[in-house]
Amino acid sequence: MKTSIAIYPGSFDPVTNGHLDLIERGEKMFDLLIVAVLRNTEKAPLFSVPERVEMLREVTRQWSGVEVEVFDGLLVDYARKRHAGVILRGIRAISDYEYELQMALMNRKLEPRLETVFMLPGETYSYLSSKLVREIAQLGGPLQGLVPPVVEDRLRAKILRSVRKNLSNVRRQNALRGSGQTGATKRRKRATD
Asked: Is 19 a catalytic residue?
């Protein structure tokens, strides 16, 4: 039975099959499920907000009851703006529960009509997190079954660009060392010219 509008907030950096498991199941429970990507200026994400939104839209387009949006600020303010009555959250372990319970209680304090629904991921995804996926990708490990293929492709491309950039920087520094000029020496030389 479907009821109301729910928001599934998160950073989704990147979206995993665990996220999609909750989205698919949540979409069956609510008239509208808004997957809300948090714009957090305090974190240094792997993917930009527009990249995450694009990936999410691509992997959720099969569900007509799912929208992908961006929000910042307080989640309760965003929920009011979207007339949502439910926050959907996934819980993988006891440590997740302690944090999520604290957040749910604070959200209820700030907006008493807002309920939080906790969902457990399918057993296949109970260990899965975006952080682990990023680490596995950075170390060249297999991502099959952890993220959708389009996300795997983008992860690999993003990491390859990062490795190439770092390699280019190392080569540049080595070339400067070989010529006897470090960045500081080069700046001093320019200052005296």
From this structure: yes
